[in-house]
Amino acid sequence: MSVLDNFDQWKNFLSDRLNQAQDSGVPNETINQLAYEVGEHLASQVDAKNDEEAILRDLWNVASEDERHAIAGLMVKLVQNEGNR
Description:
This protein is mostly helical. The chain has a single domain, classed as Protein of unknown function DUF3243 (Cytochrome Bc1 Complex, Chain D, domain 2), CATH 1.10.760. The N and C termini lie far apart (26 Å). The protein is built from 4 helices and no strands. It is globular. InterPro entries: DUF3243, Uncharacterised_YmfJ, YmfJ/YflH_sf. It holds the Pfam family DUF3243.
């Protein structure tokens, strides 16, 4: 089973990677840029495995570049907030 098969697993995976990056001293700007690049890859190369991923892909595909950066930043914020609960 892939982490992409279940949205909660995907968020947990992202949260773990985010924590590793932050613990290693990676700047937030770099983390957000990496999130943007992951979003670009997923939207163009990976089939959505669940409804949440399909919605994110559809939003990504209609968004401007600035809006895509905002979506990526919001995904980072989402997994940060989930880890703080």
